[in-house]
Amino acid sequence: MGAKYFGAAVRRREDPRFLRGEGRFVDDVVLPGLLHAAFLRSPHAHARIRSIDASRARTLPGVAGVFTHADLARWLKPLPVFGAPPPGLAAAIRFDLRQPPQLALCKDVARHVGEIVAMVVADSRARAEDAAEAIEVEWEPLAAVGDMVPAAEAGAPRIYPEWSSNVAVAFTHGIGDAERALATADVVLEETFRIQRYVGMPLETRGVVAQWDRRDGTLTTWNSTQVSHFVQQGLVTALELPPHKIRVIAPDLGGGFGTKASGYPEDVLVPLAARALNRPVKWIEDRREHMMSAAHARHQTHTIRLGARRDGTIVGLVDRIWLDLGAYNVWGIVLPYNTVAHLIGPYRIRDMKVDVKGVVTNKTPNAPYRGAGRPETVFAMDRAVDCLARRLGMDPATIRRKNYIRADELPWDFGMPYRDGNPLVYDSGDFPAALEAALDAAGYDAFRAEQTALRARGVWRGIGISGYVEGTAIGPFEGVHIKLDLAGRVHVATGAVNSGQGHETAFAQVAADTLGVPLDWVTVIGGDTAAVPFGIGTFASRSGVTAGNSIVDAAGQVRAKLIAAAATLLEAAPADVEIEDGKAFVRGAPSSAVDLGKVVQASIPTFARPGVATPDFEASAYHHVPTVTYASAVHVAQVDVDPGTGYVKLLKYVVAHDCGTVINPMIVEGQVHGGVAQGVGGALFEEMAYDTEGQLLTGTLMDYLMPSATDLPRIDTVHLEYPSPRNPLGMKGLGEGGAISPPAAIANAIDDALAPLGVRVTETPASPARVLALIERARA
Amino acid sequence: MTSRTIRLSVNGTTHTVTVEPRRTLADVLREDLSLTGTHVGCEHGVCGACTVLWDGAPVRSCLLFAIQLDGAALTTVEGLADGEQLHPIQEAFWATHGLQCGFCTPGILLTAKALLDENPSPDEAEIREAIGGNLCRCTGYHFIVEAIATAARKRTSS
Amino acid sequence: MKPAPFAYHDPRTVDETLALLATHGDDAKVLAGGQSLVPMLALRLARPSVVIDVNRVAGLDGVRQNGTALSVGALVRQRALERWAAERVPLLTAALRHVGHAAIRTRGTVAGSIVHADPASELPALLMCLDGAVVARSRRGARTLAAAEFFQGPMTTALAADELVTETRWTLPPAHAGWGFHEMARRHGDFALVGVAAVIALQRGAVAEARVAVFGAAATPVRARDAERALVGRAATEAAIAEAAGLAVAGVETVADIHAPASYRASVARTLTARALTDAVARAKDAA
User: Fold this and answer.
1) ipTM field
2) Assuming Cys at both sites, which of A31, A137, A240, A581 could form a disulfide with A280, CB separation 3.0 to 4.6 Å?
3) Which option is the CATH number for C178-287: 3.90.1150.10, 3.30.390.50, 3.40.50.720, 3.40.50.1820?
4) C63-171 in CATH: which number?
């Protein structure tokens, strides 16, 4: 395969339409006769529904239908859940796992603020909202389960009375003998770290448009989802239709980040309404709904004990972990196990013990969001390492140099499974090299040299380090279908879904190289279940590897077909035929070149003759990835802390990362920047706050603070490249990495800035109020 | 609620629409005029995705009722390009990867245009402050700032 | 998030507006910049049956300065005052640059922010700092409300349901006075957690005039009179400033919310007062 495009920073093919405002997001989908849906959502964290009276609502102007559970009971089966342990994992670890059923419309009980009680469909969204207000619900408030740590204890009020506790997923696991290692350590650092509830918050909210065609019993639904095939499967169950009668189309997505990779009630309710009313129905989530009903994330507490020898060698760790699942356990073992699998990271540690509890509470359900457990676990680990370093009087860079696994120690077998049930073995990378590259780019030594002088001048500036090793590109596969048209132009359809990562360009680069055609001959579409029968979707930093390799497989098959046809056309042996730049030719005879369109056309039978080959120039591929492949990075953050206000200003941010081979370096850098920005948000600004009664306090974007352009500096990215041995392209996933280390790096930098005071940041966001409280306590 | 018929000039073309008072300018642009380039991200004036230009100045179209704009002259993202020819700011964003999902992009392009019309040579701090009211969740702003700086440089050199 | 239905009026004169207010009073909301009102309508936190759009009312858009008396018509946009004041009253421009973002200030009005009376906003505090007043008219007549009596609580003012603010009046500091402005917000343009505006006039090295207004800390903007009294007549030393700053929220109950507890606001009010006073003294010395 030629490498004309792979590795090139070509500008994106999808950009012109977005620049012109001609993207087609779900709210841009317009159909004749469209009706609009709005939802009545529970204002209570936990309450029984005594009665619902929708009679007045049904009579309001413009209302086409009002649906409660009673109206749709026949169709409302439990929503899909995910995250059962795969066989390899279940064999190694005993999981206590409960995944309570969730219905798309509350039947008797609402278990979080925002859960759907009724659906109204009207001729405008405004009138649907007017009617939703007119629905009368008699509520009986129930005791709400708030704080996850006390909620995990026996005897706490239970959300599910038939359970023995609120623990919906629990397991312990260990490698080596951590308790013995800690018992023999010279120093044991113990601390509790709290990572707040924060979320993906894409700029485009969710949305569903559903069109039912009674003539042939087919449903077409546009859904701002990252997982069209999962949504399709959910609709098969809910609507009791075969898959080929259901087409799910992911249009342009205004961001996803995992928030749109979960299964939701609206995915099913809007199509049910369209079928019941025989009219197309659109629902566009508003921002207030989004805050209370789109998946929440993060929200873990770690009580970690980290042991070391006096020379700084880390000998073992024990971590007790709590995860606030919200009212349902949609994602099973995914988040808790991801957390455990990524706890040790780049450190040479062979003795670890974890005790994990996922707890249900009366809050919006928790789902994977960019990083999916990794940011939380890296925060606990890298904060503990820094606190340990401080205790030992070692520089945080030094303790990492001492303890990072070296390149010559890879492959590194942990002796435990990864989440996919396969052995957790770091395959490639050089963590110390990333550390040195990041420190160098950040000017670490020069900063240390001037830090004391800065402090003497009243400048409280600090620098912090964090690194991660990330299992990326989880399998089992991605679906790709490639076909050619009469002109030899290439249509690539994948199950992957683009939400800003540049699939239309990056995948075209891979296809163009494999086939030997110009880049602009290739059109890539994603997320349409009619175009690819089997697919998974985009999350877990998987699409570059999984779809990319499937594209190589499928395009390779198409190329072989073209060569066979061209060989016949050119009267040469297939081994002597080349394809380059959209032309097939006999090697060494450039004048023999014939446009691929001609090869296709020559294959089509005419009255006079059969074609030179059968005109089958399509192929599908479902590349199986054996397990995840390990990307890694080290981040360095530099901050100024205002000791009078606690305000933290991020001055500099450096990322030195390895994501294997790279299709488009510009796209890669953009992904790193975006991930870092979300990580910074988690470190300093963002929090979905609830009171102790489960009332959501964060109601608008005035409360949920995302970083703006004035809150971020430029982000310096250093690229390292250690190709993956686990797929032919040598790629690793990179979509999430940027979001993993910022909270740890920034908290480490704050501790460093305030080192003379001995401040220790143990929870995020490190808001001005929290930082000032730490400073005032230290000064008291 | 009594509807009213208003005349709006958008990107140089006058439109006549009949609107209920509570319909926002953003919704009327998108639904009645089929100009879906203006995006709605929050409906409470914070995210900036709905930004359009009114007499050349940036405004939140989600915080205006269309009925207020009889006789107004607006620029939306659809008015930036000249037929096939992209506006220099659009070209700069394309060249420097200044967008990912594209949802915030129209609001940012127009805000950038208003900035450069008033301040042709902004420094980085001025650029960041000018787009400080436009949230982007994808890019971390790094390449957006670079795109605007590139557009400014090209403009002053031409 | 679509507003509940409302009847819409767009009067062309003050008299028409007052007639509408007299008729609809409590059921009506005045729509000027809309940057605060429209989100409340969208969230259905406000559900007036009548919205009176005053953007086309004549005669409300002038900025007039006569010596130290400044009159700002009710429809003057925040951005317009920001530009007008850049060379003339830099304190106002410094404060206005923290009000949201350019797009907000293009439509938001000076009077609107003052009438909205969010205790965390800048303009009410500036009005207090500069001994300002609000001119309100109704069919019953006109009255002038001093800033100190205008702000009664969060989002609550002395304005009656049938009254329209037609202008705000400000007393500009003397030319030789120095000013200081510091704000602590989570992000630039957000509502302040705490902010302070200060004006200092010196005479022969001693403080002749001191004005300190604190916003974001309490249920209304606060004129820190104890702090001011602690400075007048004294040399403007670091110690004097520190002592005055310590009195910034003396006797005032500071507020708590999801962003910060009450103790934070009290502590930072004192810190920012010291900084604002330090800047004001430095500028006063430069001006001398």
Assistant:
1) 0.98
2) A31
3) 3.30.390.50
4) 3.30.465.10
